[in-house]
Amino acid sequence: MLKIFKVTAVLEGISYLVLFSNMLFIKPSNFELYHTLLYPIGMSHGVLFIAYVLLAILVKKSQNWSFKTLGIILLASLIPFGAFYVEKKYLKNV
Fold first, then answer.
1. Secondary structure percentages of the chain, helix, strand, coil, to 5
2. InterPro entries, alphabetically (predicted)?
Protein backbone atom coordinates (compact mmCIF):
# COMPACT_ATOMS: atom_id res chain seq x y z
CA MET A 1 0.00 0.00 0.00
CA LEU A 2 2.87 2.34 0.82
CA LYS A 3 4.48 1.82 -2.59
CA ILE A 4 1.18 2.64 -4.32
CA PHE A 5 0.92 5.80 -2.23
CA LYS A 6 4.46 6.79 -3.21
CA VAL A 7 3.71 6.37 -6.92
CA THR A 8 0.43 8.26 -6.53
CA ALA A 9 2.19 11.11 -4.70
CA VAL A 10 4.74 11.52 -7.47
CA LEU A 11 2.10 11.33 -10.21
CA GLU A 12 -0.13 13.81 -8.37
CA GLY A 13 2.79 16.23 -8.03
CA ILE A 14 3.60 15.95 -11.73
CA SER A 15 -0.04 16.43 -12.75
CA TYR A 16 -0.27 19.52 -10.52
CA LEU A 17 2.77 21.06 -12.19
CA VAL A 18 1.48 20.19 -15.67
CA LEU A 19 -1.86 21.82 -14.81
CA PHE A 20 -0.05 24.99 -13.66
CA SER A 21 2.11 24.97 -16.78
CA ASN A 22 -1.02 24.76 -18.91
CA MET A 23 -2.49 27.76 -17.10
CA LEU A 24 0.65 29.89 -17.06
CA PHE A 25 2.38 29.23 -20.35
CA ILE A 26 -0.13 27.84 -22.85
CA LYS A 27 -3.20 29.92 -21.99
CA PRO A 28 -1.72 33.32 -22.89
CA SER A 29 -0.18 32.12 -26.13
CA ASN A 30 -2.71 29.64 -27.53
CA PHE A 31 -6.23 29.78 -26.10
CA GLU A 32 -7.57 26.93 -28.27
CA LEU A 33 -4.82 24.55 -27.18
CA TYR A 34 -5.43 25.58 -23.57
CA HIS A 35 -9.08 24.52 -23.74
CA THR A 36 -8.18 21.30 -25.55
CA LEU A 37 -5.73 20.31 -22.81
CA LEU A 38 -7.66 21.62 -19.81
CA TYR A 39 -10.19 18.79 -19.47
CA PRO A 40 -7.84 15.76 -19.68
CA ILE A 41 -5.17 17.37 -17.50
CA GLY A 42 -7.70 18.63 -14.98
CA MET A 43 -9.55 15.32 -14.82
CA SER A 44 -6.40 13.28 -14.35
CA HIS A 45 -5.17 15.65 -11.65
CA GLY A 46 -8.53 15.47 -9.87
CA VAL A 47 -8.54 11.68 -9.86
CA LEU A 48 -4.92 11.56 -8.65
CA PHE A 49 -5.66 14.13 -5.93
CA ILE A 50 -8.59 12.09 -4.61
CA ALA A 51 -6.47 8.93 -4.71
CA TYR A 52 -3.67 10.76 -2.86
CA VAL A 53 -5.99 11.85 -0.05
CA LEU A 54 -7.66 8.45 0.32
CA LEU A 55 -4.36 6.57 0.25
CA ALA A 56 -2.84 8.99 2.78
CA ILE A 57 -5.68 8.20 5.18
CA LEU A 58 -5.28 4.45 4.63
CA VAL A 59 -1.49 4.56 4.97
CA LYS A 60 -1.80 6.60 8.20
CA LYS A 61 -3.15 3.55 9.99
CA SER A 62 -0.50 1.15 8.72
CA GLN A 63 2.41 3.57 9.37
CA ASN A 64 1.10 4.84 12.74
CA TRP A 65 1.36 8.46 11.65
CA SER A 66 0.05 11.10 14.05
CA PHE A 67 -2.73 13.45 13.03
CA LYS A 68 -0.11 16.20 12.75
CA THR A 69 1.89 14.15 10.25
CA LEU A 70 -1.27 13.32 8.30
CA GLY A 71 -2.17 17.01 8.28
CA ILE A 72 1.25 17.92 6.89
CA ILE A 73 0.95 15.25 4.21
CA LEU A 74 -2.53 16.41 3.21
CA LEU A 75 -1.51 20.08 3.25
CA ALA A 76 1.48 19.29 1.04
CA SER A 77 -0.89 18.11 -1.69
CA LEU A 78 -2.19 21.68 -2.00
CA ILE A 79 1.24 23.27 -2.44
CA PRO A 80 3.24 22.99 -5.68
CA PHE A 81 6.17 20.58 -5.17
CA GLY A 82 4.58 19.53 -1.84
CA ALA A 83 3.97 15.95 -2.97
CA PHE A 84 7.67 15.64 -3.78
CA TYR A 85 8.50 16.85 -0.25
CA VAL A 86 6.24 14.16 1.20
CA GLU A 87 7.82 11.53 -1.01
CA LYS A 88 11.32 12.59 0.04
CA LYS A 89 10.66 12.96 3.78
CA TYR A 90 7.99 10.42 4.69
CA LEU A 91 8.22 7.79 1.95
CA LYS A 92 11.96 7.50 1.38
CA ASN A 93 12.24 3.97 2.83
CA VAL A 94 9.98 2.35 0.23
1. 85, 0, 15
2. DUF3817_TM (IPR023845)
Asked whether the beta carbons of 52 and 9 are under 8 A apart, the reply is yes
Say whether 79 sits in a helix, a strand or coil: coil
Could you state, in order of their start, the residue ranges of all structural domains in the chain? 2-89
- Taking the CB of residue 32, how many other CB atoms lie within 10 A of it? 8
| Cα–Cα distance list, 80 to 40, 60, 63, 84 (Å) | 19, 22, 25, 9
Distance CA 43, CA 84 (A): 20
Q: At residue 84, does pLDDT exceed 90?
A: no
Per-residue model confidence (pLDDT) at position 71: 94
What is the pTM assigned to this prediction?
A: 0.85
